[in-house]
What we know:
There is one protein chain. By secondary structure, this protein is an all-alpha fold. The protein has eight helices and no strands. The chain is elongated.
Amino acid sequence: xxxxxxxxxxxxxxxxxxxxxxxxxxxxxxxxxxxxxxxxxxxxxxxxxxxxxxxxxxxxxxxxxxxxxxxxxxxxxxxxxxxxxxxxxxxxxxxxxxxxxxxxxxxxxxxxxxxxxxxxxxxxxxxxxxxxxxxxxxxxxxxxxxxxxxxxxxxxxxxx
Length: 160
C-alpha cells in the first residue's frame, strides 16, 4: 500500500501522474484521509477538481489551514466571491480538529460531490436563488413602469 510520503516524493520528483495514482489509491482505501485529498489537489490541474479536493479535506477537518488557503488561491484576489469565501471560512466554528460531519465524500476527483447544505440553508437565511429571482422580478416591474411613464409623456407632448 502506497503512503502519503510516496505520493509527496513522486510529486517532488515531478512525476505528477504517479503521484496522482498514489493519492487516488490511498483515497480508495480511506476516503477520509485529508492529507491524501490535499496531495491530490496538488497534482490536479482542473480548478473544479482542486476545489472538490480542498472541500473534502475541510469536511474531514474544518481547521485544515492548507485546504482553506488552497480554496482561497483558486480565484483571483479581486474576485468578490473570494471575499465571500474568506468571510464564510472565518465564521466556521472551530470544534474538535478531527470532527467530521456525516456528509458523503466520494473518491475520485471527477466523481466527487459535496452533499452538505449551503451555509445559508442551514442558518435559515433566504437562499441566493430566491434573492436573484426577486431582484429580476423587481427589475422587470420597474422597467415596465418607467416605459409606461415615458410612453405617456411622449404621447401627451406630441398630442397623438
